[in-house]
Every structure is written in structure tokens, then in C-alpha cells.
Amino acid sequence: MLLFIRLKWKWIRRSMKAAFTCCILGLIVLAAVFIYAVSLGPPSLHTEQNTIYYGADGKVIDEDHGAQERYWISKEEMPESIVQATLAIEDHRFYDHWGFDLRRIASAALTDLKAMKMVEGASTITQQYARNLYLSHEKTWARKIKEAFYAMRLEIFYEKDEIIEGYLNTIYYGHGAYGIEAASRYYFDKHAEELTLAEASMLAGIPKGPSYYSPLNNSENAEERQSVILSRMEELGYISAEKEQKAVAVSLDYYDHSGEAMKTVAPYFQDKVTEEAARILDTDVDSVKTGGYHIYTTLNKSHQKELEQSIDETIANGSEIQTASVIMDSQTGAVTALAGGKDHSKSAYNRVTDAQRMVGSTIKPFLYYAALMRDYTPLTMIASKPTSFELKNGKVYSPSNYNNYYANRKITMAQALALSDNIYAVTTNVDIGPKNFVEALRTFGISGKLPAVPSLALGTASISLYEMVDGYMRMVSGSAAVRAHTITKITDRHGEVVYKYKLNTDTEKSIDPNVAFTVTHMMTGMFDKALNGYMSVTGASISDQLTRMYGGKSGTTDADSWMIGFSPQYTMGVWTGYDDNRDITKTAEHQYSKQLWASTMETIHQPLPVATFTPTPGVKGVYINPKTGKLSGSGCPKERLVYMAEENIPTETCEPNEKSDEEQINRELQDDSWLDGIVDWFS
């Protein structure tokens, strides 16, 4: 007997010692886990959220969310009823525990042990939030352990209000709605802060089983759970018995989604915005769409509407020809409208930004800027006649004018630009050096492959419409600091500004504003019939449709038709052609770009005051005779206003007999042997 007692006490002591040791080890493990959790720092609370786009007027134009609706609102924006209803049904001791409800855990563990599997959970709001952020929803012990660890980290580093705010912004309420704001909009078409007690208690019951408890799927189940929630709120003292009864009796009015029409505003523009935001934020497009950003854009919805309407009215129904158009503010570079094709639903390919097409004569203004920087003037005379150029490799390049029309005399740069004379352009390029021309194009933001060859003067390079219009906009503004942009500001989901557009004052490129203005004003000549010569100015076909002064340049290749033009307020570019690069054979299709440009520009300018091109301080305007390049005289039939540096203004005045002195002009042409076979140009 005594031996038995001794053995019993020995076993008890050993058991107590083992238990004590286990407790000590457990505390050590818990301390180690705690230290490890602290060492990892605060876990990220980032989760996908809807990205919202705003137009230039500050109004929402669209949202990006994929198949899910997500918004983030602060706890202060949530009605007290939704917080209380959620606590009542999910975790009423939330503010009293440290991430774990021991009583619920013990009860659930007993149930699970009896069933020998995970059948009942005891997750607190903190644990559920951890699961929503970092884990899957499978019912395994491994997942539960991870969930507990993440819950510990959340409780260590974040306040209770931050946790409940995050939980209510991420929990799933069914029908693709994540978070209370998305759920409120989906079920009741209102913001969460406007929810009534009845509506809040109904929504609070859905996360337990989004399909089973959705009032849109099963109103009976939803109403039973709502009743339980209201009863718990009354028991916990959140509401009075009277409010409980009133809320139970309310008949809720749910939003009807059956008649919704999915029509995206300016889809090509939004595609460009998303790409631009991804570059700015140094992330990918998908992360922008689900990052919960608020992106403030430059879109002018009126401009976009007029542009799309002009496309519909200009291009014949059934035509396979495509188009691309973009409008920018002439002084800031803000993109106000953009259409990358005729119909985004049929082709999402953005021809404004992604298509590289031969630009034709639209490249010439940049050439003449480069020439004016090298002692040329708008009145520099070069002969327009069939000319061959011997290249460095021994080959001969023989460009031609449109339909082989030539002046067969000297013409001014101003007239050459208005008539789009190719011989003048190639001669100028060879004279100043193609490399200098390429450098000028880079100054105006033109990137990509630009071959330094004589034919570059005729637009043989392939460049996007977006870059070309950006370059024209910089010419009109006279600044390299401005650049085309679709975004003015980006804020994160908490309203913190993460990006704000500003002028690119760090650029090493510099545009001479006086020379830029000279070219800008020269481009108004494409609509001035005073510059008609051996053929009409290139804008003659649409000049009668224009009610104010514009400048611009058209361009044509076998497969491309371009028109880029501007006022002091807006710059617009249009390209038309076939995606498969087939030739444009119909005359009417070659006119689409000009017609679309003219109709859109006239419409968007209607509400605006008439603006003039204001000369820069370094230039002076003089009237010259377009044919001779001399100062206009009383006996000369035509005159044209031209701007240039004061020291370049001619001193000779056009004489009456010069208006028909073709013999003298032809004699001068015979003396220009230097034009025939310019050999030295640099590749």
C-alpha cells in the first residue's frame, strides 16, 4: 500500500513537472512567435479596389474593376448601424479580445474533435480579415494556423478601428461586390453612408453565405438572418426593441439591374490613360485597374462626343477603312479626346498610340524648323523642278512632286510648305544635313527609327499619330517643356496624391519659340489661296468650311492619309487608312482625314472666342509678294503676311512688271547648277 502511494505521488510529481515544462516551452514558443511576428513588421493591407476615372470636369467617366466591384471608404463614412450589425453577428467581443475569442475557440474545437474534422469555425473579425487578405478559404488546420499568425500580426500593428474598417471594405457580399460601399451600391444604388438600419442589417447577414443569404437570390433566408441580427443588436444594447421591430417590418427596395446598359465612355482614351498610369506608377496595367486609384484625366466629354459623331458621319457605312484621331490643348498638351478606331467593341487596337505609319508630308514643318535654325528664312528661294540627288553610296534619288506638277522656277519656303513641294523639301534636307533634321525631330518628341536620308523629308519614316500631334502641339506652344498627357493627377484609395502632372522643365531639349512661331504661322498658309501657285494650296478643299484661322499640314502616301492642324486653342490630328496597308484607291477616302478634321475642329471651336496666333517678341510680321518673296508693293496683285527675324526682312519691294516676268525667273533657274546633283550629305 505504501509502495502504491509512493508510486502515485511520484507519477503526479512527474506529471506536474512535465506540465510545468510544457507550459514553459509553450510560453517560450509563444514568445518566439511573437518576437518573429514583430520582426516581420506590419503586414500589408493592400487589396484590389476599383480604380475610378474622372473627366476634365471632375465628374466620373468610368471605373475599372474586372469582374469585381471594390471601393474603399473610411470607418467615419460608414453608418454606425453597419458596424454594429456586423459586430453583433460576427464578433461582438471584437473590441475586447486580442485577435482571438478563446471561448468560441474552445467551443468550436470541441465540436471539431467530436466530428474528427473541421465543421465549425470560431474566427474573429481579425482572423477573417487576415484570411481575406492573405489566405484561401479552405478548411484545414494548416490554414487556421496561418490565419492565427496573420491575425496576431494585424493586432500587433494596427488599431481595432483600422481592422474593422479594412474588414468591411474587403468582405464579400455576393454578386461581385467586395466591401460595404460596393454592396450598398449594388443592392440599393446608394452610398454606404446613406444606409438605413434595415438595409444595414440585411447586408450584414450576407457574408456568412453570399449566395444563400443574398436577398436577390433567396429573400426568405435573407430575411430570417436579418431578423437574427436585429435581435442580437437589441440584446447587446445597440438598438431599442422599438427600432428592432420597425426595421424588421420595413419592406426593402432593391436596385433593379436588368435594364443596365454597359456603354463605356471614350474606351480608346481610357486604354491610353491606363497605360500612362502604369508607366507613371511603375506597375502593370492590371495593378492600375484594381489598385483603387482615383485617376483625374484630361478628357473633355463634349470633344469626345463630337469626334465620335464626326467619324460616324464622315466615313461611309460598310467601309473597311480605319481611322485614328486625337485632340490636344495647343498650350498644355492635355488630350481632350481620342479615338483609336471606328469602333472599340469591334477592334480595341489603338491606332493613335500603337500604329506606326508613314507620315508623308506632315513631317515637313519639322524640317523647316531645322532649316530656319540654320540661316534659312520663310522667303528662302529654291527651285521647284525635276531634280536628281546623287547619294553617298553612288545611287541616284529622284523624288517627284504630286502628279509631277512643278513651278519650274524658284519658290519661297512659305509657298513650298503651303503647296507641299517635295523638291524644295528634299533639297533643304540635303542642304542642312539629314542628321540635323533627325535631331530636330527628337527635339519635338519624335522617337523611334528615323533614318537620316534625303527621303525622310517626304515622311518615309513610320511614326505614331500621337507623337506627331504631340510634336505639332509643341511647335504651336513653342515649348519643349509641355508634352502630351491624359492624366493630371492620381490619388490612392486613401486620397493621398501619388502623382501630379507638371511641366518637364528638366528636359535637355530646347525649342526656339521665335522659330517655332514662324513655322506655326507659315502653316496657316495651307488655307490661304494667296499662296496658290503651280497648284492650289493643300487645304483648298476644306478652306471654305473654316470660319477662323487655323494652321496645319496634310500628308499622303499610297496607303495613308493624314491631316494635322491647329488653332491657338486646340491641335488635332487624323489618320485614315487600312490596317493591312493596302493602297487607298478612292479619292473620297483620301479626303476623309481632312473632312473629319474640319468638321470636328469647327464644332469644338463654336463655343470659344476667336483667338489669334500671338507673335513672339523675336519676330516681326511683314507683307510679301508670295511669288517673288519681296516686300509687297502697290502694283503686286497678291500679298501674304509672313513672320521672321527683323534682320531677315527683305529690303526690295515687288515691282509691277515682276508679276509676269517669267523670262527673268527662268534665267535665274538656269544659273542654279548647284541644285543638280548635290553630293555631300551625311548619313
TrEMBL record:
EC number(s) stated in the UniProt entry for this protein: 2.4.-.-
Domain of life, source organism: Bacteria
Domain called Glycosyl transferase family: residue spans: 58-233
Broadest EC class assigned to this enzyme: transferase
InterPro entries: Beta-lactam/transpept-like (IPR012338), Glyco_trans_51 (IPR001264), Glycosyltr_51/Transpeptidase (IPR050396), Lysozyme-like_dom_sf (IPR023346), PBP_transglycosylase (IPR036950), PCN-bd_Tpept (IPR001460)
Keywords per UniProt: Carboxypeptidase, Cell membrane, Cell shape, Cell wall biogenesis/degradation, Glycosyltransferase, Hydrolase, Membrane, Multifunctional enzyme, Peptidoglycan synthesis, Protease, Transferase
Pfam families (alphabetical): Transgly, Transpeptidase
Subcellular location(s) per record: Cell membrane
Catalytic activity field: [GlcNAc-(1->4)-Mur2Ac(oyl-L-Ala-gamma-D-Glu-L-Lys-D-Ala-D-Ala)](n)-di-trans,octa-cis-undecaprenyl diphosphate + beta-D-GlcNAc-(1->4)-Mur2Ac(oyl-L-Ala-gamma-D-Glu-L-Lys-D-Ala-D-Ala)-di-trans,octa-cis-undecaprenyl diphosphate = [GlcNAc-(1->4)-Mur2Ac(oyl-L-Ala-gamma-D-Glu-L-Lys-D-Ala-D-Ala)](n+1)-di-trans,octa-cis-undecaprenyl diphosphate + di-trans,octa-cis-undecaprenyl diphosphate + H(+); Preferential cleavage: (Ac)2-L-Lys-D-Ala-|-D-Ala. Also transpeptidation of peptidyl-alanyl moieties that are N-acyl substituents of D-alanine
Any one GO MF annotation of this record: glycosyltransferase activity
Main location: membrane
Domain Penicillin-binding protein transpeptidase intervals: 325-579
Record's protein name: Transglycosylase domain-containing protein
